Amino acid sequence: MKTVTAKPNQPTYVVSTDLDGTLLDHYTYQWEAALPSLQRLATLNIPVIINTSKTYEEVVALQQAMSLTSPFIVENGSAVFLPKSQYPKAPAGSSSVDSFWQYTLGCQRSRLYGELQAVRDATQWQFESFTDMSVERVVEVTGLTQNNAALALKRRFSEPLLWNDTQTHYQRFVERLQSRNLHVIKGGRFVHVLGQTDKGKAIAWCRDFQQSINNLPTKLIALGDGPNDIDMLNIADYAVVVRSPTHDYPTIAPLGKALHTQGYGPIGWHEAISTLIQ
Questions:
Q1: Which listed site, 26, 106, 165, 198, has its alpha carbon 20 to 30 Å from 53?
Q2: How many Å apart are CA 95 and CA 129, to the nearest integer?
Q3: Structurally, how many domains does the chain consist of?
Q4: Could you give the CA distance from residue 191 to residue 202 in angstroms, rounded to a whole number?
Q5: Are 261 and 268 a contacting pair, CB within 8 Å?
Q6: What is the pLDDT of residues 14-48, one digit of tens each?
Q7: DSSP bridge partners of 24
Q8: Looking at the predicted structure, is the pLDDT value of residue 167 above 90?
Q9: Whether 18 is catalytic
């Protein structure tokens, strides 16, 4: 595989990374195995943009723990958050949220849950969405701590759910929501219902915005492990599929080079970055 050689103060690369099962261990949610590569990327001034199904609140906490100051993307491409400290001028179409500019690509959660309730009332198909769950139930199905489970419930643009019905009904469920201009994505643990967006659309917007600021061509390194990462991986110049302990590598057709790791989660993440960035 071709090796990327980066130079300090020349952010001609951007790293887009999934969290669960990729930068975070699938079972323990630990990330320290990737720390040497995170530190190296920081030294080389290569932004690490979290691109996840997690919420704004979850990512803000993780960014602080990992000492990351880059923009980040939440809820499967539903919104991009850019720190005002790095981007004093608001991007066109953005709004102000705390210390960030928020650029929204998805739709509001209230609309999603309304659509799901209509489907449930009309069909009696069996599924359990996040709105139906208590903090204790989220802990049970995810293994998160109670505090982190509470943050996971603070969704703004998407509705994760556990599908408890047949595959035939699932296909009809997807078709029904698509007819209402909504998007259904399978993640590592949940099915996610959201607006007409995905991780690929969000990171493409973010990369193009970064490129316009720096006036330099920007190449994308993307890392993910699940079906909801495929859109992001397919548009990458360097696509990294991180090995999962729970499912096979997702099938991708990237525009650029592809790498499949042998290590799981953050171990595979570090393995890939060490290969790509020398």
A1: 165
A2: 28
A3: 2
A4: 19
A5: yes
A6: 999 999 999 999 999 999 999 999 999 999 999 99
A7: 20
A8: yes
A9: yes
Cα separation, 180 vs 183, in Å, equals: 9
Taking only the tens place, the pLDDT of each residue in 185-209 is 988 789 999 999 999 999 999 999 9
Report residue 8: phi and psi, to 5°.
-55, 145
Handedness of CA 66, 223, 233, 55 (dihedral sign): negative
Provide φ and ψ at 216, rounded to 5°: -135, 145
Give me 181's structure tokens: 């201009």
Residue at a domain's end among 159, 194, 229: 194
Say which CATH number the domain at 212 has. 3.40.50.1000
**Longest alpha-carbon distance in the chain:** 58
List phi, psi (to 5°) of 131. Answer: -60, -25
- The catalytic residue among 18, 25, 229, 237 is 18
pLDDT of residue 217: 86
Structure tokens at 108: 């509001």
What range defines the domain where residue 48 resides?
Answer: 13-70+198-276
Instruction: For residue 114, give the 3-state DSSP assignment.
Output: helix
**pLDDT tens digits for range 215-265:** 888 999 999 999 999 999 999 999 999 999 999 999 999 999 999 999 999
Give the C-alpha separation, 233 to 255, whole Å.
9
